[in-house]
Amino acid sequence: MDKYEQSVLLKKLFWAAVLVIITKNLSNSVLGVNGNKNLELLEERPDNHLAYSKVNHGVCELGEMEADAWTMVQKNGNQFVVNDQPFYVNGFNTYWLMVFAVDQSTRGKVSELFQQASSVGLTVCRTWAFNDGQWRALQKSPSVYDEEVFKALDFVVSEAKKYKIRLILSLTNNWEGYGGKAQYVKWGKAAGLNLTSDDDFFSHPTLRSYYRAHVKTVLNRVNTLTNMTYKDDPTIFAWELMNEPRCVSDPSGDTLQEWIEEMAVYVKSIDPKHLVEIGLEGFYGPSTLNKVQFNPNTYAQQVGTDFIRNHQVLGVDFASVHIYADSWISQSISDAHIPFIKSWMQAHIDDAENFLGMPVVFGEFGVSTKDPGYNSSFRDTLISTVYKTLLDSTKKGGSGSGSLLWQLFPEGADYMDDGYAVILSKSPSISNIISLQSTRLTTFNSLCSWKCRWGCKKKHPLEASLYHDDL
């Protein structure tokens, strides 16, 4: 064995030892299990699906929170960072938290959900910061608010911080659920405006002013529990302009584009500290006809959205994409679903990196138990596919920066289930899949420093092969 071969062998042994030590420490201090053997057993045993409930993701004592410096999530190129360290969105949706927090009889479900989510390493929750003119409305009429409902939103924000969960707060809805643009149009008609379509929400100056007023009110809200203004609270990860905006009355995309341009800058004018995203589903539009092949169907390019053009707007910090093969391809579970998900995700990861220079978050994904041919094994495969695609991007320093499962429920909220609900205590396989993804992302952060993450495969190919490729 010559000196070069000895050097190579020593390097391999050294980095292998480092990997073993760090993995062991992570297993003991982060996972709450001892070693890889126990981790394998944990994954296989259904009775252990919430075995991560004692890990260091739970409720934080004040001293610990201060030591961890609970600061704003920021963007560095095509990555999220916190305190100059990479931050990955491993999260979930639960849109109805504010409504549940209004009533003392259901408020505990909010805490229960955050505790369970934290126990498997989930770190971001997307939820509604609106309820327009409906039952338990936050905004009862333009600029008229129910203080008790606002206090419920205060509780959601303060409770999230206790469990070290950050929030993406959506500001209105494209759909009629919880009011949305249809309710703004109803308000406009009641005020005597000549409106003919729900899409007038995007173009009529009065309706735009209603929306801006809501944005201003929410961003400037002072939390009654923490005494912190929302726009200054690091618990809020990002503002979302709208849930799944579409403007089918203008397939060119110009109407929605103008609305995004105005509102993204408006949000930033009030709150330059937080990140902003649109809330799009991710359909390619007229500006990139060479990309429409990645859309799930031909109708997708006619709904007035345009993924790349929309995200080139000043004030938009990261791209948003949703994944619903069972809504877009076929409701029946099909062999075509998984390949579509892979190509859909990869196209957007590549475009976020090469054309937009920003992170991309897959803000909703899931499968309904009501779909013909549904089985839990397919759901496990779908979630694992999303996670693996993101992890592959992460290991390369790509733009794939996270995902949010639609949707996570605590026990006892089944009556709110739209078919997509995941109850961790009743879904051991999904709990383990989520926990494993959390562990992999935590391990990746621990093993690879910020500088090394960008260049280690070129500078240290031997070492990189030992700890990157096997995660």
Compute the separation of the termini in Å. 31 Å
- Assigned CATH architecture: Alpha-Beta Barrel
| Name of the CATH class | Alpha Beta
Overall geometry: globular
- The overall pLDDT, averaged over residues, is 86
Q: Write out the CATH superfamily name.
A: Glycosidases
Cross-sheet strand order for the largest sheet:
10-9-8-5-4-13-12-11
- In what range is the share of β-strand residues? 5-15%
Low-confidence stretches: 20-67, 453-470
CATH topology: TIM Barrel
Total discrete domains: 1
Explain the overall architecture:
- The chain contains 17 helices and 15 strands.
- Helix 1 crosses helix 15, helix 9 runs parallel beside helix 10 and helix 13 packs parallel to helix 14.
- The C terminus is likely disordered.
- The strands form four sheets. An eight-stranded parallel β-sheet has the order 10-9-8-5-4-13-12-11, covered by helices on one side.
- The protein is α/β, with parallel strands linked by helices and 471 residues long.
